[in-house]
Each structure stands twice: as C-alpha cells, then as structure tokens.
Amino acid sequence: MDVLAGCQAFVSVSEHGGFTQAAAAVKAPQSVVSRRVAALEKHLGETLFERTSRRVTLTQFGADLLPSAKRLVRLADDLLYDAERARRRPFRLAVPDTCGTANLARLEAQARSENVFLDLVPQPPTNRAELARSLAVRAALIAVPSDQSDWTVPLGLAGVAQPTGARIYLETLRPGRSRSGEPGRVVRVQPEDDVPHIRDRLTRVRDAVGMRPAQVAVAPTLTTALAEVLGSDDLLLCSSAQATELGLAWRPIGEVELARGYGVSAMAGTDAELLRTRLHPLIARCLGAAG
Fold it and tell me: Domain named HTH lysR-type: which ranges (predicted)?
C-alpha cells in the first residue's frame, strides 16, 4: 500500500470537494484517484468519505485524519524540494587552467543535462592538487602519468610557421642544425606541463639529441610562453586542440610520445565515480583528450 499516494489523493478530494475535481487538479484519471482513496481506506480500516450521487463529504474518521494526512503530504513536498536543491548545490571542481573559456562553458552547460551543477575552478597542476588536499574543492583533475590516467591528452610542438613534415624532430632544433650564429630554437613549456612525467622525459631527449639546456624553457605562464612563440620561430609544447585555439600549427614530436594524464582526486568515492563515468566524455571534450 502506497500510503503517501493515498494521502495525496485523500487530501486532494477533501480540498476540491469531489473525485472528478480532484482528478482534474492532479491531472490523473478519476479511476486512479478513487482507487488510491479506496486502498487507503482499506489500509486504515475505516471510511474516509460519505459518497452520494451529489457530493462527497468527510466522515468523522476522515476529518480526524485529514490534518495528519496534510502534514505527510507537506513533508513529502518539502523532501522533494530539498532533494532538488541538494542536486543543484554547486559541485566545485578544480580543472586545468589551459581549458579555454568556451570549453569550460560547454562542460558546465552539458553537465547540467546530467543534473550536475559544476562550479569550475581553473588552476595550474600544483594548485589543483593542494585544493583537493585542503578540501577547498569537492574534487580536482590532477596531473598523473598517462599510463595511470582517466583522460590522456597527447602533446606535440606548435609554432607560427607551418611545419613541412608529419612530425617535428627535436634533433633538428639543435644549434648545429640552425643558421650560423643562432642559438637554436627553444621549446617553450607552459606551467601545465611542468610536471616530472612530462618535463623530465623531454629534457632527457633534449640531452640525447645534443640540444642546449636553455633550449627547453619553462615559462611562468601560458601567456608568456605564447608571446615568446609568436615573436620568434620557437615552439610551444601543447596539445593539438590547444594549438588550434591559439592559432598555431601543430605536429607530434618525432623522438618521444608525450601526453598529459589526468586523474581524479576527491574525498568522496561517489564524487570520483561521477566524474569517471557520467561526466567522463564531457570532461574528455573539455580537455581535448584522446579517445
């Protein structure tokens, strides 16, 4: 016996003065309303209404129970309201600050279709991890090696000029291959990629092919790195999607495959599972992730 549904029908009939009027008010067939009231009467063991061909009136038993039935219906309405408000409570999520405004806006809008209301906090890698540790956010997308990641973003090199080959080989950037008297082109690394599993692999290849240490330079901001690239023939380490957004020509690196890896740091396992399942493809599109 669905006591709540029975009480809702009972209260509606009492307020509207009849089964037909109550059915119209709740947009349900009259037979459904009548059946629910009858089931409640059977469950309670007493008649709630005196039914005649002209009108429906409360019995004394019905009048005695009506206040309690109204309280139950009101509490149910309050529960539904509170549940909706809880669903709409912002989910504060730290994300890479390399994600463009348009991509972040699309992620936020698309998440709403999943009844998830994101409050996105763009931050560099170290800050995201700290926000998660300090519980300043519900969850964070943190930098991890690509073989341990939930999302993987392949990296390459991008510059102003269109490359001639399918890949850019770092060994072609060493000073001996540059024009006479020039120090060699520099690979600019933005803060998002200043993490050991990317930076260290890149510098090992740099040393192996004979580039100078200064030819791989970590910039304090993406804006600074991009300014250096736009004003020279230097190259930016970035993803293909990011290069397109910045108006640069991108190619993968010839000697090594580098990728950003992203995992989830969250206090609640259900929050982490939400990001890895229902929101996984939405986050992938925002990050420009492979697959």
Answer: 1-59
How far apart (Å, rounded) are the C-alpha atoms in residues 67 and 208? 83
Contacts with 45 (C-beta within 8 Å, 6 or more apart), sequence order: none
Give the other-Cβ count within 10 Å of 50's Cβ.
12
Q: What share of the chain is helix, strand, coil (3-state, %, to 5)?
A: 50, 20, 30
- 234 and 253 housed in the same domain: yes
Q: Give the domain-ending residue among 87, 109, 133.
A: 87
- Single-letter amino acid, residue 60: Q
**CATH number of the domain within which 37 lies:** 1.10.10.10
CA distance 19 to 229: 76
Q: Are strands 235-239 and 216-218 parallel, antiparallel or unpaired?
A: unpaired
Which H or E element spans position 139? strand 139-144
Q: Based on the domain organization, do 175 and 236 belong to the same domain?
A: yes
Distance in Å from the first CA to the final CA of the chain: 49
| Whether residues 239 and 186 fall in one domain | yes
Compute φ and ψ for 155, nearest 5 degrees: -115, 155
The structural domain count of the chain equals: 3
Final residue of a domain: which of 87, 107, 135? 87
Burial 193-213 (b: 16+ CB within 10 A, else e): bbbebbbeebbebbeebebee
pTM: 0.70
Partners of 235 in beta bridges: 187
Find the domain containing 167 and state its range: 153-260
Rounded to 5 degrees, φ, ψ at 143 are -80, 125
Are 33 and 9 in contact by the 8 Å Cβ rule? The answer is yes
